[in-house]
Amino acid sequence: MESYLKFFFREFQYPEEAAFALLNAYRRIEKSSEAAEIFGNQILLYNENNLNDYNAALDLMDKVAELSGAHRYEVHLLLFIFLSQHTRQLYAEKRISYDIFYDSMSDLKWKLFECHNIYGIWGSFVAWWFNRFFNLTRFALGRLQFETAEFNGTYSKNGFTLNPKDTVINIHIPSSGPLKREDCHASYQKAAEFYKDIFVDKPVAFMCSSWLLYPKHKEFLPQGSNILTFMEDFDIIESSVDEKGSCLWRIFGTTETSDIEKLPQRTSLQRAYIDWLRKGNVCGGGLGVFFI
């Protein structure tokens, strides 16, 4: 199993420091027979297509962490890295390309970086998020990630209408780098092709609920912002404010956001947000829709 771990780190170009830390965490698990058995049993369940409760599996990973002395965030990420070995096989069986597998499994790395930036630990603090990649109901297609969802409202444009319970393609945006318009549009086209059998004789409907679609961004983000160009693709049909600032960690890379003056100002986005917050404003989000 250790050989697969090393292969995965090379394949997905993990930082040497991260690979070293995760390999050591896995060796701690192996040193505890009880921890190794619990850990291995969850992998075996997945390999037999019988891992049906990922939350229960993560609860068991907390037990593995306790028994082995590895950090729970390390153990959570390690579990999914090992599950990916069988995921490759599932992709091959369904004739889904390696490129899609690679982009989808790269989400483990994006969450690895988030965890290290915020907590200083090479692992994942949001491993609950991964399950849909591993039951093959969420896919990364280039820059963006997609999954089917039910629409809860109504929306009409150019003679086409979405009604409650209609199928839409829900968009997720990983923290994998700049959000360039050309990359997003390439992803939309890949998704339209990937899901075309669901939308026979009608346009492909996309939906996104995100802090990135906060309508008031137009009031304070700098001209030319990638976020503003991303927003242009959508009709934003709902919006909300976030009084608690729960989205700010995504912008500033820290959960300690109560003192505005201590927040980093390394990027134009951070500087624009600090100026906005200093004026007594809050962050928020929006729900956007469009057809292809």
Summarize it:
The protein is an alpha+beta fold and 292 residues long. It folds into 2 domains: 2-134, no CATH class; 139-291, Aminopeptidase (3-Layer(aba) Sandwich). Helices cover 49% and strands 16% of the residues.
Instruction: Assign a percent range to the helix content.
Output: 40-55%
Query: What structural class results from the helix and strand content?
Result: alpha+beta
Encode the helix/strand succession as letters: HHHHHHHEEEEEHEHHEHHE
Widest sheet, order of strands = 1-2-5-6-8-7
End-to-end distance: 44 Å
In the predicted model, the low-confidence regions spanning at least 5 consecutive residues are: none
User: What's the story with the biggest beta sheet?
Assistant: 6 strands, mixed
CATH A-level architecture of the largest domain? 3-Layer(aba) Sandwich
Which fold does the CATH topology of the largest domain refer to?
Aminopeptidase
User: Mean pLDDT across all residues, rounded?
Assistant: 97
Radius of gyration: 21 Å
Count of spatially separate domains: 2
The amount of beta strand, in percent, is: 15-25%
Strand elements, count: 8
Provide a count of the helices.
12
Shape: globular
What is the CATH top level name of the largest domain? Answer: Alpha Beta
